[in-house]
Amino acid sequence: MEPLADTMRSKSKQALLLWVDGVREACCLHRVIIYSLRSKQLAIRTGQCFLLNGFIFLGSIFVLKSVIIPALEWILPGHCPQINSPESCSFSSILEFYRFLRGGLVQLFNLFWFYPLYVFSLILSSIWYNDIAKHGFFALENYGARDTKLSDQKESQTLQSTVHREKSTDLEGFMISIAEQLYSVLLLTFFFAEVYFTGLIPYTGKALNFMLLSWMYAYYCFEYKWNLSGLSLDKRLDFFESNWAFFAGFGNPCVLAIFLFSPLVSYGVMAILFPLAQKLTKLLPCLEESGEVLDWEGYQYFSLPITCRCES
């Protein structure tokens, strides 16, 4: 029992250190400024994400809750104390109609503004996230830790050559890439369903939901650059599961910022934080000559089967 206790104590310490490393990586916001200064296109895309998701989307929610709804409550009161004349309290049917009309106007605002804006933001942000990952990956791979600003011409030429290399792959590699992308989508879909249903568990559901959301958020952040580096899906998942504590720590600050908000506000906050978190993902798996994944800091303490995989 004593060797087992020592082993568990050692593994727990390693897991805690990895978790701290993940939190520290997620909080290195100065790296966002450095990468933005290196690449003009990266700074533009990040600014567009802030403008759309922060100023327009979250700003619309603020205007709705702080201006429009209070104005409707003043124009269409639903309670007797809000009406000056005491005789009006007898007209309960009118007050009920006011409440119904006020709710209908708010729903119309959601239907014709918020929901289309949400879909538009979701689609456009997905395109911008991919661009942010490409420009950030280029800045990291070609300039390392140097604070050098990229010329637009050089950046454009390198990105074009990267796209050309990607397009020049053989048919078999292309089919494998498509299959991995589809499998990754299915994998994350089932994982998202798991996140949703664990949130319904009494007592422990919220904690499990928080941890799973952190893992999912971290995986999404790193997947963009893993795709650009050409890392196969199996190696990504092996690395992710072997270093689960690091990815939990990386995702915890981001998820904590959105965990207590309403769904629409949470989406807006997440859409702002996600491009920042993408710029912080400098971690890439190291590979042995045999192609096997080396674990973080050269050791593997224990692996959690976070994802479900189909074995061939």
Q: Which helices and strands occur, and which strands form pairs?
A:
Layout: H1 2-26, H2 30-38, H3 40-75, H4 92-143, H5 152-167, H6 171-198, H7 205-229, H8 233-242, H9 244-258, H10 263-279, E1 286-287, E2 293-294
Antiparallel strand pairs: 1-2
Defining key terms:
312 residues, mainly alpha, two-stranded antiparallel sheet, 10 helices
Structure write-up:
The structure is a single chain. This protein is mainly alpha-helical. The chain contains 10 helices and 2 strands. The chain has a domain at 19-53 and 114-139 and 168-283. It has helices at residues 2-26, 30-38, 40-75, 92-143, 152-167, 171-198, 205-229, 233-242, 244-258, 263-279; strands spanning 286-287, 293-294. The chain is globular, with a radius of gyration of 25 Å.
